[in-house]
Design a protein that fits this description.
Shape: globular
CATH superfamily: NAD(P)-binding Rossmann-like Domain
Structural class: alpha/beta
Strand content: 15-25%
Strand order of the largest sheet: 3-2-1-4-5-6-7
Radius of gyration: 17 Å
CATH architecture: 3-Layer(aba) Sandwich
Number of strands: 7
Oligomer: single chain
Distance between the termini: 33 Å
């Protein structure tokens, strides 16, 4: 990944931290974004922190503009941003919860892609790698808003893959099961953590897809469910 510029969204999150470190370790220049992020969180000469809000069109464009100003181009977009809300049936889900899931999981992806794709097409080898959820394909009860937003995101990524293959750009989405993050352990303290997907596994897969070895994988929806 020497000489490649990678934009990691949610770069200091439970998964994003592993993704950021994986790409830095592979020699890439990494531009990390989240609502609150500092350079000191990844004390590395190839890391640049860009705080931003992706759930609005203006916010996403501002992040892309800053990334391009710093890196010159974006070779890889590693999109790990996402949010979860559950516990209520569709009939009992309020408007605010449904809209929040759309904003965090779908709208942020759309605004980010719309801003990034014109410049990424010019590289001739762009990579879009997004994090979805098992719930996108296998929705459960009482997570309707979350599952719907993730399913729509999968459709969006597959569409981008088809629309941009002429420019050598690939777009794929990874669907993890429950991930072994600090937040999930706190939310489900009685669970068997050994059954969960470790973030390093997903980070390694994202890195593989970004490298030359992954150039023939496009429009893929890749399940990573762990032992559960």
């Amino acid at each position: 990944m020497q000489g490649k510029v990678v934009l990691v969204t949610g770069a200091n999150g439970g998964l994003g931290t592993y993704v950021t470190r994986a790409f830095l370790g592979a020699g890439a220049t990494v531009i990390g974004t989240s609502r609150k992020i500092r350079h000191s969180e990844f004390d590395h000469p190839n890391f640049k922190a860009v705080p931003g809000e992706l759930s609005t069109a203006d916010g996403a464009k501002a992040v892309i503009d800053q990334a391009l100003a710093f890196g010159g181009n974006i070779d890889v977009l590693a999109h790990t941003v996402g949010g979860f809300a559950g516990g209520k049936s569709v009939a009992d889900t309020d408007d605010a919860t449904f809209q929040t899931m759309l904003d965090v999981n779908l709208n942020s992806t759309f605004y980010l892609l719309r801003a990034a794709l014109p410049s990424m097409r010019k590289t001739g080898h762009g990579r879009v790698i997004a994090i979805g959820s098992r719930a996108a394909l296998e929705p459960g009860a009482n997570v309707g808003a979350y599952s719907a937003s993730k399913a729509a995101m999968v459709s969006l990524i597959k569409t981008v893959a088809l629309e941009n293959q002429d420019a050598g750009l690939t777009a794929n989405v990874i669907l993890p099961g429950t991930m072994d993050t600090a937040a999930n352990r706190k939310a489900m303290p009685q669970a068997d953590f050994s059954q969960w997907v470790h973030p390093s596994t997903v980070a390694s897969l994202m890195l593989w897809l970004a490298r030359d070895a992954g150039k023939d994988v496009n429009a893929a929806v890749i399940p990573v469910y762990g032992a559960a």
